Amino acid sequence: MIDFSLTDEQKALQEMAREFAQKEMRPNAAKYDKGDEFPQEIMQKAFEVGFITCEIPSEYGGGGLSHLDTVIISEELAWGCAGMYTTIMASSLAYTPIILFGTEEQKKKFLTPCTEKLSFASFCLTEREAGSDAGSLKTYAKKVGNEYIINGSKCFITNGGVASLYVIFALTDPGKGARGISAFIVPRETPGIIIGKEEDKMGHRASNTVELFFEDVKVPAENLLGKEGMGFIIAMKTLDHTRAPVGAAGVGVARAALEYAIEYTKTRIQFGKPIALFQNTAFKIAQMATEINAARHLVWHAAWLMDQGKPCGVESAMAKMYGSDVAMKVTTEALQLFGGYGYMKDYPMEKLMRDAKLLQIYEGTNEIQRLVISRGVIGPIKS
Ligand code: COS
Fold first, then answer.
1. Residue 335 in this model has a pLDDT that exceeds 70
2. What CATH number corresponds to the domain at position 290?
3. I want to staple 115 with a disulfide (CB 3.0 to 4.6 A). Which of 61, 206, 225, 307 is the partner?
4. What's the pTM value of the predicted model, to 2 decimals?
5. Does residue 126 have its Cβ closer than 6 Å to ligand 1?
6. Burial grade of 39 (CB within 10 A; 0-12, 13-18, 19 or more)
7. Is the beta carbon of 315 within 6 A of some atom in ligand 1?
8. 368 lines ligand 1 (CB under 6 A)
């Protein structure tokens, strides 16, 4: 039996996120899009209503929300401002490996404080020479006595400059490739963590993205997540869980663009009538609305699978790929309907288009999603 209706709690959550996006994010989106200021004030409010820690189980002080709840919230927040959404959800990305693989003690020690006052976390996987090929990272964690000493660097780290907690992936056994990677929970105050320059990005400018350097960062062995050599699997399983929300963000960005386009084309008069009455406009709007709905269904299905504890890697990759591709396509088409006005910064369309682009790139490029999907769909091939 398929039931697409949301529960009363989910409807209330959706309404709360929508209201937050409308009242707090939208009016400030252009200001933070300038990129000279971190949206600390809005994040404080997002923390207070529980969005930043929504996925942390309630026994550690978080919202304990389901994956379906999370994607519902993600769509609304990205509708408000994709950059601020990224700041909020990047912390969830770093909390996820702790939620999935942390011991009871690690969860209490590292997750609980994140729910007590506003703080951010970063998932540190990507390196300059290890982006899509995440298994080829070079950051090294050498075991000395009862601690690990980490040396190396990471790039494109969301929240890296503002985080109080990092989950760092590093080689513990360089001879073993991806099977020689381990994951560590590292508090910000650990000596040897150096924050590099903040990236000047095309979109998501309300989010903080930096390079990180590790110089003899000493981490107690008890901060190892899972077992030595499990790091790559931990990273992959985490991404299986966090890619559907990126698809949801694509739906939110696309929905915002479509709504603006509908409003504009109903009032823009050319050749004596609103341009929404031209078939070219109306059919474009029909196509956009259909693709947004299709993307949302993929996202919800992937989240539902996760909530059932079922395998979801392929479906999450589909949701991420399709949701972000739809965001790119819809924002491009919607901007076109605005004509020259769409290209101007006075209108919201160009920001939406810039923001859509990153969704196709981060948390695994859409080419990587196609790789994951095709491997899953085709299965093993004898050669
Ligand atoms: N769940 C569990 N295990 C997984 C897995 C998953 N989703 N994906 C891969 N693995 C396991 C494989 O089963 C394999 O295990 P064995 O060594 O026991 O066979 C191991 O991990 C290596 O996997 P694989 O051979 O598929 O690795 P590849 O290097 O060929 O490809 C991709 C891995 C490309 C899928 C991976 O590197 C990737 O996702 N890259 C993108 C990284 C990314 O998203 N970065 C964004 C930055 S984080 S915001």
1. yes
2. 1.20.140.10
3. 61
4. 0.97
5. yes
6. buried
7. no
8. yes
